[in-house]
Amino acid sequence: MADVALDNAFRTILIAAERAEQLINGARPRVESRFAKPATIALDELSRGLVPWRPVTAEEYEQLRLQKLEARAAEDHAPMFLRPPLAEPLPAEETAEAEEEPLDEDLDDEFDDADYDDLEDFEEVVGDEGGEAAP
Questions:
Q1: CB–CB of 12/6 below 8 Å?
Q2: Domains of the chain by residue range
Q3: Is 47 exposed, middle or buried (0-12, 13-18, 19+ CB in 10 A)?
Q4: In this predicted model, what pLDDT tens digit does every residue of 45-89 receive, in sequence order?
């Protein structure tokens, strides 16, 4: 494991990003942290020297990169488990009939436009802007 003081910010970010990805995928934090976000926890672990890492050669890096790509490709082709399918969809005729029925006939009676034929009748009942009923 390398020293906690990493040689540059770029390497620090790369290592913390890799650790954060591990945390997101279910790895347990190596330290009890006051932080909640995986990236911040990873930086906290890295600053405490709890994330092992080592420099790799170009060949090792390429091999690790290919392994990671293969793992992601296998993950992309893995079966997904979703909720079970719905029983049977309604036939088109039943769906159309359900859309034509009014939701609540009592609402139509409550807000009948016939009670207020014009705006003046409405103002008499509700009142003018001052809050008092019109004479």
A1: yes
A2: 9-76, 93-126
A3: middle
A4: 999 999 998 888 999 989 999 998 998 888 777 776 666 666 666
114 secondary structure, DSSP code: G
Q: Which letter does DSSP use for residue 98 in this model?
A: H
Q: Would you state the pLDDT for residue 99?
A: 57
Work out the angle at residue 14's Cα, subtended by the Cα atoms of residues 8 and 19, and round it to the nearest 5 degrees: 125
User: In sequence order, what are the residues at sequence separation of 6 or more whose Cβ sits closer than 8 angstroms to the Cβ of residue 128?
Assistant: 134
Name the CATH architecture for the domain at 9-76: Alpha-Beta Complex (3.90)
First to last CA, the chain: 90
Q: Which stretches within 1-132 are classed as H helix?
A: 9-24, 38-47, 58-76, 92-100, 105-110, 119-126
Rounded to whole angstroms, the Cα distance separating 129 from 121 reads 14
Res 27 pLDDT > 80: yes
pLDDT band (50, 70, 90) for residue 134: very low
Structure-token match 């909720």, residue found: 83
